[in-house]
Structure formats: C-alpha cells, structure tokens
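Sequence decides. Our protein:
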Amino acid sequence: MSDLQESAQRPQAWSDTELSSSVQAYLLMLRLELAGERYSKAEVNRQLREGPLVTRSQASVEFRMQNISAALYELKMPWITGYPPARNIGSAVKEKIIASLFEEGIDFLDAYIATSHVETLHTRVSELRQHHLGRKPLGSSRPLTETRTMTTHVRDPAVKAWVLQLADGVCEGCRHKAPFIGQDGLPYLEVHHVMPLACHGSDTPSNAVALCPNCHRRCHYALDRDQFKLELYENIPRLILEVPEPVPSDMDVFINPDVA
C-alpha cells in the first residue's frame, strides 16, 4: 500500500475547531434535556456534518458525543442519556475534551455534582429546586464514601433531660404537642441550642429549648430563622442571650443528635 493510500484511509485527528463545535452542540442538547425540553440528536448530528464537521461521518460524530459523555462521567457530572459514556476513550483525547468543556462553560452543571458536605448539598438542592428537573436523575447505585475528621461537642445528658421534662411533650417553638411517641415510650422532641455550640454557646438550660423536628429545622434552614430565634428568646423566660464567637469551619454542620 502506498503512503498516499495509507494516509487516505487513516482518520485525521480532530481539530480544535471540530472539538469545540462538538462540545458546544453537546452542551446545548444537555441543557435542553435537563430542562425537560425536546430536541433531536439526529438533527444536531446532521447540522454538524453540514457545517463544522463536514468531513466526519454520522457514526464518528455519534462516537465523539459518547467521548464527551465519558469526560463528563469522569467529572462526576450528568451526561446525555442517549449518549452513554464511551469505554475506550484515550487519556489524551479525554483531557482535550475536558479542557474544551471548561472553556465552553459548564458552571450550570455544578449543582448536579454529588457531595458529602451537608451545607453544600443543601445549597445545590435549593438551586435545583428553582428549576424544572426535566428528567429522572440517574443517581448512584453505589454511592461513594468519604472519611472526614469532625469535631463534636460533649453533651450533658442531665441538661437535655431537664429541658425535655420541662417541655412536658409540648414544642417550645410552635406550642404543639410532640408529633409522635418515641421508641422509649416518651413524647419525641429534640433539644436545640439557641446559641450554637459551634459558636461557643453553652450547654445549659438557659441556652437549650425542646422543639419538634419541624421547628428544629426551622432554626437551621428557614428564611425567617433569625426572627424565629428572637421569638424563642421573647417567649421562653429561662433563655439568656449569649454572645456568639464565630468559629468558621467546614466541619461545623447541623447534626441531629437524636437520630442515629
């Protein structure tokens, strides 16, 4: 076989322009899919081959889209369901595709990235809830695990028991009865420190209240949580306002000590 014939049969490497055009088209389809809007992969393929990918076949464009899915899979981001990640993508090609993805802009996918950080998870869930999730998430059949070092506080059981006894089965926030009876046969309420222990709040009856699960989460996540906190101080005479001492830390997260 002559060098000319061998060159004609050997596929040419994709140019930066071809790669960028493919990534742009892919991200456009992915945006539409995540938003639940209809689109045609075949039509996008045709338009690419009539434009920037004029020298490429339909199959090669399809495979390139699967390469892009593989790159997104590597980044733990969602991909187009109709383009399953290619298994045999080369490392050099994958690196070029990833670079092109970031160049074209994939910030809109950040909210879809799985995380073990409680506050980050809450922020991403809140962001996604603001938009229509057009497709059922793939999720993970075997979620990854992370080992983290976390600082916890030593709690006085007598303080918790005293506050719960004083509440006598009635939430000190909404004044409704405990929502159910716990496994110990007693009304279920949770003890909340109005000034968080992470901010050097005290573990004393003057800083602790008995709340139903709903009010407890209101203290941490509600839009009016500061106003609710003031109402607790106003309505519960034993509470004493404490001065917070900020201790910024990624490890300070809301952990419900009543739930294993």
In short: The CA atoms of residues 53 and 60 lie 10 Å apart.
